[in-house]
């Protein structure tokens, strides 16, 4: 929403500006973050507004961290860097967040508390990393640590997504072609062969009987299809259904092992980042609990309890079945060197590469199998439709 703001600048001159903010209080905070003394804020009514064809103003913590780190490394202090970013992004959601954080800093609040006021944009992990860095005053190190952490997560996600694109396209295109044949072409062939149904081959009779049924009950089948898609989407939105599906996937021998490895890699990476920031191991494991699958969380709580009783981290996680053979040995090395946070990061990178290799191998093996299945299904439908024509041609000869 647009607001007309009237304020006094540092030279006690009246200035008027237009700001986009979620509320009047947010607009006031943005203006005050620019060093203005606000004395009036009025909402601007818009009868009609065309959608803006500009880039999205959505706030991204990773991009914010990169830009803030670049300004801090250039020699600006935190307030100057935040003022620069707020002036650069004066409108949109990004401007609201930056203005709110800057206003909180100007009120004397710590940086971690300022960003914690926007939980929808800054995760508890981000806030905890900044809070730990405030003990030493090294915000740049905390930002660098978070950027590296987010980069590792994005790299693994991109590998998985890129490997899944081609099989997904094959499934969608194959399903569309098969649906077109079964629900449009086959019913019309059924009308052509209706008078000679008794002389058709058995499988062709079955196919054409299905085509006749579709032709007579097309509206009902279409309605049932829409209802099924809607019901499936609603079911997948329920946490209980997703949890049940995940548990079934976890029971598959090869896929379940890789899913657990991926979960453990997230656990090691996030806990390692927090421990490098100076957060104790027990607190770090408590903060990363929500990142794990639901059925692994009781095991993590068991590991935390063992650490509180004085057990080493490698023993506690191993007892709770939250280690791999490689991770267990590397944790022992980390405990001897006294740098468990760094070692957990290395363990996560090792397992990320392992998961990426498995995804690459699986997609390379799955793609030809999928193409063969779709090709056989489509070819079988076409052959069964044209088989009576082939037999008729043979009889003519």
Instruction: Kindly name the structural category.
Output: mainly alpha
> What general form does the structure show?
flat
Query: Over the alpha carbons, how many angstroms does the gyration radius reach?
Result: 30 Å
Residue windows where pLDDT falls under 50 for at least 5 positions = 46-57
Question: Looking at CATH, which topology of the largest domain would you report?
Answer: Receptor-associated Protein
CATH class of the largest domain: Mainly Alpha
**Average of the residue pLDDT scores:** 78
Number of helices: 16
Give the amount of beta strand, in percent.
Answer: 5-15%
The major beta sheet can be summarized as: 3 strands, antiparallel
Roughly how many Å apart are the termini? 79 Å
How many strands? 3
**Estimated helix fraction:** over 70%
The named CATH superfamily of the largest domain: Type II secretion system (T2SS), domain F
Domain unit count: 2
**Which architecture name of the largest domain does CATH use?**
Up-down Bundle
SSE succession: EEHEHHHHHHHHHHHHHHH
| Spatial order of the strands forming the largest sheet | 2-1-3
Descriptive overview:
By secondary structure, the protein is mainly α. It folds into 2 domains: 109 residues, Receptor-associated Protein (Up-down Bundle); 235 residues, Receptor-associated Protein (Up-down Bundle). Helix content is 72%, strand content 5%. It has 16 helices and 3 strands. The chain has a 3-stranded antiparallel β-sheet with strand order 2-1-3, with helices on one face. Helix 13 runs antiparallel to helix 14. The longest helix has 57 residues. The chain is flat, with a radius of gyration of 30 Å. The chain starts with a strand and ends with a helix. About 3% of the residues have low confidence.
